[in-house]
Amino acid sequence: MKPHSIRESLLSVAFALMVIVVGGAVGHPDMAEAAPENGTDLPAVEVREYEGLDLSSINDFRENSIHGPQFVDVSQYTLAVTGLVENEQSYSYDDVVNSHDTYRKVVTLSCVEGWDVTLLWEGVLVKDLLNEAGVRPEATTVIFKAEDGYTTTLPVEYIMDGDILLAYRMNGVTLPPERGFPFQLVAESKWGYKWIKWVTEIELSNNPNIQGYWEYYGYSQSGDLDKPYFD
Amino acid sequence: MNVRVASRVVHWALLVFALLTVVSGLGITEYQTVTELTFGLLNKANANRLHLWTWIPFLALLVAHVLLAARPGWFRRRR
């Protein structure tokens, strides 16, 4: 093949690629769609900086749940507070979100897999829910249960003495299903396996030895971040 | 010990530990799949324990492997 014909061939290929790229961009809805005429709600954009702190993205997580993301139907959803309480409670999603004070704080989740994310969490205090139910004096352990069958436990003092959030927003965005919608526990100063997602029930027990899902396989019962994650 | 025999032992041991490290790492990050493939034997917790244990011998064997492979003359001169 002659040199000029090679050059022509290359130019043809480059031109064809340009046509494909430009054509693809024009055809792509994100790049080419006109603005809505009467105004349309756009998806919330996550906050990436809060009071001078750089935040991770809600996409920086690794999906490591035991049965994959759960897609909870909020119209059917209830959060139950059961066990050693004076009055068992059952809340709808709106009950939890709209009838309780909202708190927000920046907390880092550290996973035993070796990654971590720092996010702005927003939600209600777990102790507010427990106080409404009335924790009986013999209760020592809070068992959290999730839509996918996952469980974890924490001491009552940890919940009642700290400001532990049951979050429904991260970085200003409602939790996506992959991140635990409707609620994820923000178990600060604990390893990630204590940060249960898709919470459906909070049970009070007097048995401090009850093991959650990963605790059963040998992960530390306390889950303290400043200690090894194997007992 | 004969350097050639030592080299062979180190190389094979490194292969074993490299595989253990990789498989246990996958057993952590892709635990849903690995647990199923190993019929529950290598679940996430077991993989995590194994991974915490294998990295030290793996690194030691890697260093020994490189030394033995890259400097044959160094050992030959001292025999």
Provide a brief overview of the structure.
The complex is a heterodimer of chains A (231) and B (79). Chain A is built from six helices and twelve strands. Chain A is an alpha+beta fold.
Write the layout of secondary structure elements.
The complex is a heterodimer of chains A (231) and B (79).
Chain A: H1 3-27, H2 29-32, E1 49-50, E2 53-54, E3 79-83, E4 89-91, H3 93-98, E5 103-110, E6 116-125, H4 126-133, E7 141-146, E8 151-155, H5 156-161, E9 165-170, E10 173-174, E11 184-186, E12 199-205, H6 213-216
Parallel strand pairs in A: 3-12
Antiparallel strand pairs in A: 1-2, 3-4, 5-6, 6-9, 7-8, 7-12, 9-10, 9-11
Chain B: H1 3-29, H2 31-37, H3 44-70, H4 72-77
Helix pairs in contact in B: 1-2, 1-3
Task: Describe this entry's structure for a reader.
The complex is a heterodimer of chains A (231) and B (79). Mean pLDDT of chain A is 87; it is low at 17-36. Chain A starts with a helix and ends in a 15-residue tail after the last helix. Chain A is α+β, with helices and mostly antiparallel strands and 231 residues long. Chain A contains 6 helices and 12 strands. Chain A is 23% helix and 26% strand. In chain A, a hairpin with a 5-residue loop joins β5 and β6 (116-125). A 5-stranded mixed beta sheet of chain A has the order 4-3-12-7-8. Chain A folds into 2 domains: 3-32; 49-216, Sulfite Oxidase, Chain A, domain 2. Chain B has 79 residues and is mostly helical. Chain B has one domain (3-74). Chain B is 85% helix and 0% strand. Chain B has helices at residues 3-29, 31-37, 44-70, 72-77. Chain B is elongated and about 50 Å long. The mean pLDDT of chain B is 88. Classes of the chains: A alpha+beta (231), B mainly alpha (79). Chain A binds chain B through residues 62, 64, 66, 68, 112-113, 214, 217-219, 229-230, and chain B through 28-29, 31-32, 43-46, 48-49, 52.
The strands making up the biggest β-sheet of chain A line up spatially as 4-3-12-7-8
The rough form of chain A would be described as: globular
Please give the number of β-strands of chain A.
12
Radius of gyration of chain A, in angstroms, nearest whole number: 24 Å
Instruction: Average the pLDDT over all residues of chain A and give the rounded result.
Output: 87
Helix-strand sequence of chain B: HHHH
SSE succession of chain A? HHEEEEHEEHEEHEEEEH
**Proportion of residues in β-strands of chain B:** under 5%
User: Number of helical runs of chain A?
Assistant: 6
Helix fraction of chain B?
over 70%
CATH fold field value of the largest domain in chain A: Sulfite Oxidase, Chain A, domain 2
